[in-house]
Write a structure and sequence with these properties.
Layout lengths: L1 H18 L16 H4 L16 H23 L16 E9 L6 E9 L1
Antiparallel strand pairs: 1-2
Length: 119
C-alpha cells in the first residue's frame, strides 16, 4: 500500500510539472546603443591572479561531503527497529528406552514396562 501511494504522488508531481502552463514572454523593453552612455562607463576587465590557489575550495568541498555523508549515514542507520538473530535452540535431549519396574494397578503387584528415559 505504501508503494502504491508513493507511486501515485510521484505520478501527480511529474504530470503537474509537464502540464503546467507557462506565462508568455515579455518583450516590450529594448535598449538601443551601448549601455554605458546612460549608466556610466563599463567596468574595467577583471584580472584573475591565481598565485595562492592551493586547492582549499576543493578540500573544503570534500570535507563537507564526508561530514554530510557521515551525518546522513548515521541518521539513516539510526531509524527503524533492530533485528537480532535468535539464539540457537538447545541441543536435543539424550533419550533411550529402558525397562523399569512400575506398580500394577490391578492387583497391587509390580511389573516391568519399557519406558523412554531422557536426561
Amino acid at each position: 500500500m505504501k508503494k502504491i501511494i508513493t507511486s501515485a504522488l510521484a505520478l501527480v508531481a511529474i504530470s503537474s510539472s509537464v502540464l503546467a502552463t507557462s506565462t508568455p514572454a515579455m518583450a516590450q523593453y529594448y535598449e538601443r546603443g551601448p549601455r554605458w552612455e546612460r549608466r556610466g562607463p563599463p567596468p574595467p576587465p577583471q584580472r584573475h591572479h591565481r598565485r595562492n590557489n592551493t586547492g582549499a575550495i576543493i578540500a573544503g568541498g570534500l570535507a563537507a561531503g564526508v561530514v554530510g555523508g557521515l551525518i546522513g549515514g548515521a541518521l539513516a542507520n539510526d531509524s527503524g527497529p533492530r533485528y537480532y538473530a535468535d539464539p540457537p535452540p538447545p541441543p536435543p535431549p539424550r533419550c533411550w528406552m529402558e525397562d523399569r519396574r512400575v506398580p500394577n494397578a490391578y492387583n497391587g503387584g509390580w511389573h516391568y514396562e519399557t519406558m523412554r528415559v531422557c536426561r
